[in-house]
Design a protein that fits this description.
about 90 residues, alpha+beta, two-stranded antiparallel sheet, 6 strands
C-alpha cells in the first residue's frame, strides 16, 4: 500500500471521528469574542495606504498592533499625522 493511500485513509478516519461530535451551536457570547473594535485612523502618522493590482486601496497600520491591519480605538501609538513638519 502506498504512503499517499495510507495518509488518505488516516485523514478519512479522523474526519469520521470529528463528524461524530457534530457542530455545536454558536452563541452571542461566541460572536462577541470574535468581533473586535478595531480600525485604522487615517489621521495617524503610522497609517499607510497601498493599492492592489485590482484597484482596491488598503489602509494599514505600520505599528505592530495586536490585530493585523488594525488598531484599537485607544491605540497607545497614535500620533496625529504631520503635514510639512507641522501638526494638524
Amino acid at each position: 500500500m502506498s504512503t499517499s493511500k495510507r495518509r488518505r485513509q488516516r485523514a478519512n478516519r479522523e474526519a469520521r471521528r470529528e463528524a461524530e461530535h457534530g457542530i455545536r451551536a454558536v452563541t452571542d457570547a461566541d460572536l462577541a469574542q470574535l468581533l473586535a473594535d478595531v480600525t485604522v485612523r487615517d489621521d495617524c502618522e503610522h497609517a499607510v495606504t497601498r493599492a492592489t493590482a485590482d484597484g482596491v486601496v488598503l489602509l494599514r497600520c505600520t505599528v505592530g498592533a495586536a490585530v493585523p491591519g488594525g488598531c484599537p480605538r485607544d491605540c497607545a501609538s497614535f500620533e496625529r499625522r504631520r503635514v510639512g513638519g507641522l501638526s494638524l
